[in-house]
Amino acid sequence: MFAFVIDFSTLQHMAATQPDVLLLYILMPIGAVLILSMLFWGMTQLYLDRKGGEYASGLKWVVLAIDIPMNMQSPKAVENIFAIVKGTKSVITKKEEWLRGKFLTPTSFEIVSIDGYTQFFLRTEARFRDHIEAGIYSQYPEAEISEVEDYAKNIPGEYPNETHEVFGGEIVLEEPSFLPIRTYEDFEHMASKDEKLKDPLNQMFEFMGKLKPGEQFWVHLIVHPGGDGGWAKKGEDFILKTYGRAKPESPSTGSLLFKLLFSPFGWILKETATQLGAGLFEAGEAAKPERPIFFVPTNTEKTQLDGVTKKLAKPGYECKIRWAYVSRHETYNKGGRNTLWKGYLALFTHPAMNKFKYDPDTMPRDDYFWMIWEYRRKQRELMRALKGRSWGHGSNPMYLNVEELATLWHFPTIESRAPLMARTESRRSEAPTYLPKPGVGESEELPTEELIEVDEHGRPVARKVDPGAVYKDDLADILPTEPMIEPGADQRFVPDRADAPDDQPFIPPNLPV
Q1: Rounded Cα distance, 475 and 449, in Å
Q2: Global pTM value
């Protein structure tokens, strides 16, 4: 006969063990696994960071200066320029990521004022230059784009130094990124038939034009071609939550298996909590009313729903906005320039949805005495990020669609009176196709032979001959040296028009002979 023996000695030993010792026995294996996992993850991140640095050192960048055209287009044309940034995205395999350190590079759209002179810049990889230029020319054929030296190289990177000071940082959205800011469509009105758009950039151009010699102001709008950080999905969840609808679930294999194994226990716990809650709070608190079937949103909810829906309807990118005020010591005016910049950012505030704010962790501040110790370090980090257009430094990226990006960076219209701004004054076009072309064997070059001088009657004029000079193929030896007509011989009879024969045409008397 077989006998089954159940040994409870282990359970008895555990029951006799002190709780703290028992907890230690349980947590030690779990803690060891967590510690080893964290060490492994940290080593892989250090390896990827080193390989990424090697890959970044081999990249070639170009800085393009754009002379703005005299255009009548609204910022909507710039939306198409931002849309083509998606073309710089490529699929990175695990082999490229782990062996070469390859990563996606952002494109920086910049507005810079140096000594009061405002210029549009664009920084991208050299291999994407033709792609970006084609997008700009497709919308603005009169624009002029030229490669220039990076203006940030002329500013020192160490602080303190003998010449310059810097102040700035990054701006972020105060609310979640799926809530939009005010865009250029919110600035359009029909108060004037000649000017439909009250361009918000005009205020920035005005205060940039007030900079003195020695002052500079930089605004970098860094756009990454990768994903959206999940903000589009969060916007959809916000809409469903506002309407009181359940989120559609798409469980994976792991979550489905977890539900099958633990659903009975979960059902028991849920029912127990429901019964206990009903018994404890039923008498003192009425059941919360459910949202009615016919949902009537408030004005704020309606504005938010329309804004989120409109923002998700257009493509967007993860991006960062970094700004800096750079000046020489003798012209440094941090308080005055910072006030102008904050006033400009306030234009894009939408009370019911979103607005910009400073990220204090990225700014060199000296409000309190303990901040003075890290003031210079923050200046060095800020300048390093500005020169490299760093994507990894600073605050977390935010999500802006092409309409919001075009609101923040676009060419001003012809009505803009911004001073000291590079413009394309004339239309650039190709030569007409109907111009004559040289035949076979003919050259487009101009003739090198000296032209013959003629008088008012079309007759060749003899040049003064220097006796000591020798002329080749000269006409001096064949031209007459004396007048061919004696004085008075040109007084010929001119018949009157009425006396002229009918079979001969009338010859005017002032025709040259």
Answers
A1: 13
A2: 0.72
